[in-house]
Amino acid sequence: MNSTNPSMSHRTGDPNAVRPAVAAHDPIEAEGFDLARFRDAVAVVILPTLNEEQGLARTLQDLPFDRFELSGRKIQPLVIDGGSTDATLEVARTWNIPVLQQTSRGKGGAMLEAIAWVHRMGIPYAVVLDADATYPPDRILPALDLLQAGTDLVIGVRHPVWGPPKDLKDLVHRIGNLAMSYSASILTRRPILDLCSGFWGVSTDRFMGLHLDNSSFAIEAELVLKSVRQGLSIHQIAIDYHERVGQAKLRALRDGSRIFLTILREAGRPSRPDLSHHVPTPWIRDVLSIGLSIGTSGALLECEPSEAPEARRIARYLRQSLPDTRVEISAYPSSPTPFRRPRRPAPTGHPLVVALPSVLGISGGLRTATVSIRSESREMQIDLSRAPPVVGPVPAPSAWARSGGTRRDPRTWPSGSASLLVLTSRLNFARDHQQATLLTANGFRVVEQVFTRSPTSGTP
Predict the structure, then answer these.
(1) Could you tell me the CA-to-CA distances from 217 to 76, 253, 374 in Å, in that order?
(2) C-alpha to C-alpha distance for 183 and 195, rounded to whole angstroms
(3) Are strands 153-158 and 199-203 parallel, antiparallel or unpaired?
(4) Which terminus of the chain, N or C, has fewer Cβ atoms within 10 Å?
(5) Residues 357/298, Cβ–Cβ less than 8 Å
(6) Got the DSSP string for 173-197?
(7) Model confidence over 342-387: pLDDT tens digits?
């Protein structure tokens, strides 16, 4: 349950005692800015504001302060304000949230100032979400888990870009978003599903190393494209997206043209991948990425005794990052459970198997991602299984079926296939297609199988 009372234990002291930093001073030196609030923090949740009185109040009400505490990590929200003239700052004071006064102009300027300040404070991670109640705070912890496991940049892919538009204005924004993501993907040969998302998490070290300089709404495009060019580790996760609270600041023609210029300037440059920081991807990060892609509601880990330590690490990771997910560990041989799915026999011995059931697909069939991990050969295979709701002929495999199952090198996309993936993700609204799209965009090869349900079998 989220906390909604500003007097709860995670907010200490008199709310009126916290004052925003004075614009004429460096925020670190500004009188009234309590630096002790940030001591030993692992991450800062940055909320950019400009006359967001209602949106900020809703966003702070939805922040999972109780889960921040239960995670065992110090996570500190921070507002950076661009000169609000409404009651935005009063809302921040009421919730006892520190405020930085922005000294530059534009959303990009706010991000550059805030993350530079967080980096100077020695805080390793930042998660950014617009303070207009459009983005879900429940994805802050999973994004932070991916970052702590070695991901450099986490991008939230908005669900409505995959759904039918609500009105003409929404349609125009969808077309613009598609054109930008498509252009960026075709130029970089990497699938970028949502180039302008206002929800993202980043390593502050990596952010500063990119030397960003865009002060406008094009900051997200510059961040993503420079990250791709430098070969940083990028994960894209599905997030819900809601109607904004308050007046929109983005201007479609003016800001859209700036974003397109940024795409042409940054995506067209040759890549300079920095491979010095690359390390083997930990299984727990991959499994969490898969779970976030399919919207898992539970997990069953099956393993031989030799794989038990790895299974326990994955289980702890899933329970921490997705607290609503039920996780079980079982040794071979296992009795049938609702999580199990038929799978191909392993060539030699049993791999560590993680079964992740998701919500119902668009066809009503239960989908399960069965992840087979072979630690000794660093191989992973994902089977997406679907059980039709009624007895009938077995449907043909999805067009997303792939052979094999090892991790794809993100720099080896064939020409045109990355942009095609972005285009088809907008045209096919089926949830199972969306799940496969996210997995593929994150570098996984997916093996898809379809199973029938017998009239008396209950759970297939």
Answers:
(1) 24, 12, 43
(2) 10
(3) antiparallel
(4) N
(5) yes
(6) HHHHHHHHHHHHHHHHTS--S-TT-
(7) 444 444 467 788 888 875 544 445 678 888 887 766 677 788 776 4
Domains along the sequence of the chain with CATH: 15-277 (3.90.550.10), 283-450 (no CATH)
Asked if 212 contacts 223 with a C-beta cutoff of 8 angstroms, the reply is: yes
Convert the pLDDT of each residue in 418-459 to its tens digit.
778 888 777 776 777 788 888 888 888 777 655 443 333 333
The total of other beta-carbon atoms located within 10 Å of residue 76's CB is: 20
**Selection from 110, 125, 116 nearest residue 28 by Cα:** 116
Q: How far is CA 154 from CA 157, 236, 375, 424, 431, in A?
A: 10, 6, 25, 22, 21
pLDDT tens by residue, 285-315? 888 888 888 888 788 888 888 888 888 888 8
Distances (CA, A) of 271 to 195, 209, 223, 414: 18, 15, 14, 16
Query: What digits encode the pLDDT tens for the residues 20-46?
Result: 333 334 554 444 567 888 999 999 999
Other CB atoms within 10 Å distance of the CB of residue 288? 25
Separation CA 142–CA 237 (nearest Å): 9
Query: Strand pairing partners for 327?
Result: 299
Residue 332: count of CB within 10 angstroms of its CB: 12
Helix axes 308-321, 283-294, angle to 10 degrees: 50
CA angle 319, 323, 328 (to 5 degrees): 45
Locate 54 and state its tokens: 């209602």
C-alpha–C-alpha distance, residues 272 and 186, integer Å = 18
Q: Do 446 and 439 form a contact (C-beta atoms < 8 A)? A: yes
What does the alpha-carbon distance between residue 452 and residue 347 come to, in Å, rounded to a whole number? Answer: 25
Length, in residues, of the chain: 460
Sign of the C-alpha dihedral computed for residues 14, 16, 20 and 26 taken in this order? negative
Q: How far apart are CA 353 and CA 315, in angstroms?
A: 12
- Strand, helix or coil for residue 129: strand
Q: Which residue has the tokens 């609702």?
A: 338
Name the E strands within 259-388: 298-303, 326-331, 352-357, 366-374, 379-387
> Using only C-alpha atoms, what is the Rg of the chain?
23
Q: Please say whether the beta carbons of 118 and 166 come within 8 A.
A: no
Do the Cβ atoms of 398 and 352 come closer than 8 Å?
no
Cα gap 357→366, rounded to integer Å: 7
